[in-house]
Amino acid sequence: MTKQPSLLLAFLLLTLTSFTQNHAINVDDLNSQSIDSCFTWMRENAFTGENLDEFHIVGLQTLQRSLETENDSLIAQIHEELANWHGYNGTFSPDSVVYHSEKALEYYLKGNDQKKIADTYRTLSIDYMNTRQLEKAQEVLFKSIQIYEILEDDAGLGSAYRSLGVLYMVLEDYEKSVEYTNMALPLLEKTKSYSALAIAQFNLITGYGELGEFEKAYEATDHCLYLVETKVPEEIFVPVRALSYRGEVYVKAKDYDNALKDYMKAWELCKAHIGEERCATYRTEIGQVYLLKRNYDNALDHLLAGVKSYEEKGQNNIIQPYLDLADCYIGLGDFQNALFYKDKATANSKKILEDKIANLETEMVIKYETAKKDEALASQAALIEQKSKTQTLVMVVASLLLVFLLSLLYFFYKNKKATKTIRAKNAENELLLKEIHHRVKNNLELVKSLLALQSDQLEESATKDAMIASQNRVQSMGIIHQKLYQGTNLGSIDMKDYFVNLGEGILDTFNAEEKVKIECVMDKLELDVDTAVPIGLIVNELLTNSLKYAFPEDAKGNVQISLLQTTPETLTLKVADNGIGKIVGLQPKGTGFGSRLVQLLTQQLNGSMKETSEDGTSIEIQFKIKSAA
Questions:
Q1: How far apart are CA 363 and CA 350, in angstroms?
Q2: Under a CB-based contact definition with an 8 Å cutoff, are residues 181 and 161 in contact?
Q3: What is the secondary structure of 304-333 as a DSSP string?
Q4: How do residues 581-592 score in pLDDT, each as one tens digit?
Q5: C-alpha dihedral, 110 to 113 to 116 to 118, nearest 10°
């Protein structure tokens, strides 16, 4: 479920110290105020959510005056306060937060306060996470850990490990997220950093929830609430986020009643502390649960309020809330509004992808121009060095040796730099490819939704069945692209995991979960996408055929799927059910399109098909492959 403020932004805000005083300041005559007075006022007003225009004027003018003092520590602190203010109030863009955090680090590095440098590295990592600069986030986090270890700062080290837990959560590596968070807990408890200890439970709630260990997620929530109640009651927003995260876990566990209770509690707590208007985005979570419970009227009320709040705050890049609204309108039969919000979600997905591509192109141009300038400077330096050593024979020999050594160092440095650039480009290309697979999957989901809308308007049974079959075929391809962008190997698909997901989707389509059990009897096998797509379509057709005809009325049964690599170049696919089988002399049901599609796909794979009808129906297909991962 979508979280607002986001996990990372909430993590940042909850680790900052807020000030409740609100001294007045004369904005029209700032020069009459001392820099210390202006800075104190900034600290007291950064987290009030008030005086936004006034704060920006005071902040920028105080920063300009501090630059004239050449006091590196003061300049760094003012940049730090501006970064905190931008992050808390959501003004301008996340890049503004990163800019001021990087400037704060730049000025702290000029001094020798290692503790402050380590703290700034750690907070900068969170800013990098918010702007999806994950490699930079990891780099500065490990720098902070190195300094904390030298300083033997257990509290700082615990916070850094907690941040690593957040980073791996963003990377969707939930096992590592839980691992690093559990490394942080004893350090935070030892140093009595109870606020950070309570916030660290967020990683465990979400991590255990994603890993399917729901009871551990619930225990982490209870422990978080206990810490706030007994140790840090002033942390008013920690229970809000903890309840919200547990609500998401309840949704994953399909315990919608408890999910709704937690989401409602989170919203009520938030309203009590900062007012209904600023908490309206929480209502999208409530709306999502009502949508899952098919209570479309209540879902619509909360979703519209939440989306309106997002839009009023200028956060127009949302996707999931628009998709939820579209599904809600479909449930209410309002297809015009459903298409409207589907279009908005699609447009936002497209814009996000285009922006990422543009950023990648800009970064590559900058790196190329920088490399050219470095090469030109290095060549000029080598030429001057060589000419200055040509006066005597001894000096010539020395010059040649020096140039030789410099050349070795230059080419070593150039090779090292090229390797780093190639790695960075590979990482960027991998990210871009994942985004493309994600986009294709979303587009297939849109096609499936449009087919569903069309089928709902059809009355003729055969045509409606054909539309549902088409939805399942689109879904089978969509699952493949989903597995590609979620996995670590962009070139291959784990077929067993894919068949499990495909089977669950088809059972859900026919409402046959209680009637038919689909078993995947095979070891882990990975195939390339060109082979996986036709195999997926074949299995989709065979499963659909079994569910439609093998188990009439309320008959129960099993369907087994297996895909084995019998030789290095041969795969054997088998789909067998224990249904009624084919009756001799009985005319086959359906249009026959599915059977023709299976035959064509088998031919495409250079395969052969064998069908038997003993104790049900069994289809076995053997085909050649060039290579199987």
A1: 20
A2: yes
A3: HHHHHHHHHTT-TT--HHHHHHHHHHHHTT
A4: 776 555 556 667
A5: 90
